[in-house]
Amino acid sequence: MKIAHVLRRISFNDWGGTEQVVWNIAKAQAKAGHDVRLFATSALAGEGLETVDGLEVRRFKPIYPWWPMSSRLVAELDLKGGNPFVPGLGRAIREWRPDVVHCHAMARIAELCIRTAAKTGAKSVVSLHGGGANVPAAEAKSLKAPTRGLFPWGKLVDCAMGWIRRVPEDFGGIVCVGADEYERYKARHDHVMFLPNGVDTSLFSRCAPRASGERIVCVARIDRQKNQMMLVEALARHPSATVRLVGPVTQPDYKEELLRRARELGVDGRLSFAGALRPGSDELVNEYANADMFVLPSRHEPFGIVVLEAWAAGLPVVASDIGGLGRLCAEHPDAAVVFAPGDDSALDAALAAASAKAEAMSRAGREAASQYEWSRLSAMLVDFYAQI
Question: How many CA atoms lie within 13 A of 236 on its CB side?
């Protein structure tokens, strides 16, 4: 089977959860004998063809449809979105003629995938990675802030081309990472599946963290959605704790807020940033290995792939009881302690509970992670393609 995975961006130096899911699914599908290629914009990476681990990645320059458009704004939209036009992307997919066009983006890129699949007779599938069913209105509004006040000339092009973007309903199949979105669409579409994220447990088998609970790690992009501010504030209440934040900075102003607040509280010496680390790298594995506890205080989260990594590394997990993240932890209650999102007292209680039973949680976490191997999830997805 020829499978085209299409996503907004894939940069091996600036990685996010969606990219990690797509990359691991694609590798597992290729290992199973399928012909797999990745197509993306050149955001945070160069244009052209790149072959990594035997997989072809083709990237095309995005055009952000706003005026005026500064280089600073381009860089900001490369990080967070921008709903671009992507000349050449549809043509490249049509020329390859895949059996399945699997889209991992929304808006104009999704519309392009629908139309490209229709022209070639390919099956069209979209994955909902972002937890759109849980995004608070205020945060959704903040994502549009960079282009507020600019002229949206792209809307004129949309009208001229007749693009209406009924996403995800017009795709042949819908894959939901979040259970909330699965519940939303399963009665509205003939082909909907819930597919959790996965993990390669073998990467983390060498991790043997201590059980003191004082070294906290959070692996997530530096972004208000992830709510790392709770961990900065917690440092003031836990004088022996340290916090290590691992992940790309998608909201630079938020990182500045974190640093400023840490200085105000006098805890900046116990807060550190590792930056973006490539999934599966020795550097990333070392971050888990050097921690005692994993904490994810997200405001909303469709799943939480990093929780699986933490479990595979044997770390006790403390997480917000929100959306798919809360459901994942509830399915493995011996491996995680949840707390009410945004509640500092609840976080403190969860940290204490996890420290008290760290060894048992470590064993339960490794067992939980073993249920989410990528090879198993990839086979489920290919079966779903066949049903469309």
Answer: 12
Which pair of structure tokens corresponds to residue 225? 């959605």
Report H helices in 58-178: 71-80, 89-96, 107-120, 137-143, 154-161
What SS3 class is residue 192? strand
Using CA atoms, how far apart are residues 47 and 41, in angstroms rounded to an integer? 8
3-state secondary structure of 350: helix
Enclosing H/E stretch for 293: strand 293-296
- Going along the chain from its start, the domains and CATH numbers come out as 2-198+373-387 (3.40.50.2000), 201-372 (3.40.50.2000)
Which helix (H) or strand (E) segment holds residue 307: the answer is helix 305-312
State how far the Cα of 340 lies from the Cα of 388, in Å rounded to an integer: 39
Q: How far is C-alpha 255 from the geometric centre of its chain's CA atoms?
A: 19
Write out pLDDT tens, residues 41-68.
999 899 999 999 999 999 999 999 999 9
92, 58 contact by CB (below 8 A): yes
Calculate the average pLDDT of the chain.
92
Q: DSSP class of residue 190?
A: S
DSSP 8-state secondary structure symbol assigned to residue 85: B
Instruction: Please identify which residue in the block is written with the tokens 């010496």.
Output: 269
Q: Are 30 and 55 in contact (CB under 8 A)?
A: yes
Query: Comparing 130 with 342, which gets the higher pLDDT?
Result: 342
Report pLDDT for 133.
47
Distances (CA, A) of 132 to 2, 230, 304: 29, 23, 14
β-strands 55-60, 48-52 pairing: antiparallel
Question: Of 229, 182, 260, 176, which is closest to residue 342 (Cα–Cα)?
Answer: 229
Q: Tell me, what's the pLDDT at 209? A: 61
Reported pTM? 0.81
Residue with tokens 């392009």: 112
